[in-house]
Automatic annotation (TrEMBL):
GO BP term, pick one: positive regulation of cell-substrate adhesion
Annotated Fibronectin type-III domain residues: 30-128
Superkingdom assignment: Eukaryota
InterPro entries recorded: FN3_dom (IPR003961), FN3_sf (IPR036116), Ig-like_fold (IPR013783)
Species, as recorded: Penelope pileata
Protein name: TARSH protein
Amino acid sequence: DAEPRYLVSVRPARVSNNKKSCSGRNKNQKPLQLVVGTLTPTSVFLSWGILVNPQHDWTATSNCASDRFYTVRYREKDKDKKWVFQLCPVTETVVDNLKPNTLYEFGVKDNMEDSIWSKTFNHKTVLSSKYLVI
């Protein structure tokens, strides 16, 4: 036989018990800072974190970010509209199925006890691509 043959062996990875504990979290919650960017006429990209100093970069919300969940809420900019809620295990998400050329309100909060909503961020989706003039 001129063709090589291989034998592959698979072993389970070691289980590490070095899980970090997130006890002693700060009770003085700061609202998260939210950034919204346009992806398509019907979708936006949201990202958030704690802004320590506006002159510097964003920081991670904690060393235990993987243990946290966040709630994003959004609605058309109209007090009669109901909020849509989305649970997120990370500090960014895509919101889709939005209406083109429509003003929306967005907010986010940490799901920890006593957390507060971020400042509401208004963002208008763009016109459908067939209406865009370049």
